[in-house]
């Protein structure tokens, strides 16, 4: 393969949205003639699709112990050691040296993933000292989680200004500007590049599954049991009581919980693992009921399906609730706050959503993958001059 060489580092800790968004950018880069390398530090994800032709490196996998994200566990569920960190950090630097990228993109860091400083800071220092220093960008969602720690914001700006050339913001400022959730953004405004939201509608796997079904999902993390149980109980109270309801469960979910769901499920309710063709099912389902993760919401909007979203609020998470509220005000989906969710309230919102018009998929920018790839190529060409 030829073309500019772009390495994207991504670390997913709870769900898999970060990994899938990075893969979307890699696919767009490949379509535009670049040579992408995706370097993942999270647990392997069986639902990851469409990476043929894309270089892929799996670092020693790490995940968060819980929604506080404070403790890192290895693939065996043990707390990572200093030796583990040192070995993984060295491997990452070797991967970068061997690939010789024109650009390195760190997904979320320095605005998040502070737990990964043990490998990020040595990498950035190495990149800064290279004779043919590659461009260094970070890739970040439209909304940051408020951790209530101003020093973290100061650190983010300091590291961005010291090591990075720009920050790709995967959002639409007409929906929400980056400074709305990062108050110090004025200091780095000249470094921000808005790309639009990432939703690759033209590479969604074809599927015949899900036609006129109610799809219930919670992304790739093990955070969906309350939603799944409420959906099963709500079904007979809705106008969609005779439709098939398909509940898609993360492979990370506790096996005991999956058994519980199967025991609860009446005829007409399917319990199965998350599927790679889920985005395709959104094009012809009756309704999507889900958590409000970035990727699921953008895929749902791109598919044009009616949707009910129940934002995740574990730990200090505020990102899902804010984005869901913004999009629901535009009539693009219907939000039910998780603390308010009961089978009765969920059934009421489901009926309201089914009685409402389908959302307009052109209401916000969803071309973020292609725009990101275009900007990356343009910046590399400018850097080479």
TrEMBL record:
One of its GO terms (molecular function) is hexosyltransferase activity. Transmembrane segments: none annotated. The keyword Nucleus does not apply. SUPFAM superfamilies: UDP-Glycosyltransferase/glycogen phosphorylase. InterPro entries: Glyco_trans_28_C. Pfam families: Glyco_tran_28_C. Residues 273-358 form the Glycosyl transferase family 28 C-terminal domain. Keywords: Transferase. PANTHER family: SLL1722 PROTEIN, UDP-N-ACETYLGLUCOSAMINE--N-ACETYLMURAMYL-(PENTAPEPTIDE) PYROPHOSPHORYL-UNDECAPRENOL N-ACETYLGLUCOSAMINE TRANSFERASE 1. This is Glycosyl transferase. It comes from Ferrovibrio terrae.
């Amino acid at each position: 393969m030829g073309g500019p060489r772009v390495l994207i580092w991504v670390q997913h800790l709870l769900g898999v949205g970060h990994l899938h968004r990075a893969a979307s950018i890699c696919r767009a880069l490949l379509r535009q003639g670049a040579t992408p390398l995706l370097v993942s530090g999270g647990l392997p994800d069986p639902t990851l699709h469409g990476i043929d032709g894309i270089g892929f490196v799996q670092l020693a996998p790490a995940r968060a112990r819980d929604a506080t994200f404070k403790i890192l566990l290895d693939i065996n569920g043990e707390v990572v050691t200093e030796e583990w960190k040192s070995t993984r950090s060295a491997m990452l630097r070797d991967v970068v040296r061997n690939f010789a990228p024109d650009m390195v993109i760190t997904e979320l860091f320095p605005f998040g993933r502070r737990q990964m400083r043990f490998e990020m800071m040595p990498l950035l220092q190495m990149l800064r000292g290279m004779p043919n220093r590659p461009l260094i960008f970070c890739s970040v969602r439209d909304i940051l989680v408020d951790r209530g720690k101003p020093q973290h914001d100061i650190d983010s700006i300091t590291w961005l200004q010291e090591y990075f050339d720009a920050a790709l913001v995967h959002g639409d400022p007409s929906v929400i500007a980056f400074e709305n959730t990062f108050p110090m953004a004025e200091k780095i405004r000249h470094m921000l590049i808005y790309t639009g939201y990432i939703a690759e509608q033209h590479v969604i796997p074809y599927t015949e599954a899900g036609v006129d079904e109610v799809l219930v999902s919670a992304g790739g993390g093990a955070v969906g049991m309350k939603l799944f149980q409420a959906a099963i109980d709500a079904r007979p109270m809705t106008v969609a009581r005779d439709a098939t309801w398909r509940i898609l469960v993360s492979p990370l979910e506790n096996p005991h919980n999956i058994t519980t769901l199967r025991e609860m499920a009446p005829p007409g309710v399917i319990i199965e693992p998350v599927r790679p063709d889920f985005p395709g099912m959104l094009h012809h389902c009756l309704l999507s009921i889900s958590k409000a993760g970035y990727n699921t919401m953008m895929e749902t909007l791109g598919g044009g399906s009616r949707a009910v979203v129940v934002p995740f609020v574990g730990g200090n998470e505020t990102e899902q609730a804010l984005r869901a509220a913004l999009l629901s005000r535009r009539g693009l989906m219907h939000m039910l706050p998780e603390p308010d969710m009961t089978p009765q309230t969920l059934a009421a919102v489901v009926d309201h959503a089914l009685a409402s018009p389908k959302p307009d998929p052109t209401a916000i920018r969803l071309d973020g993958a292609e725009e990101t790839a275009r900007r990356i190529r343009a910046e590399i060409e400018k850097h080479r001059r």
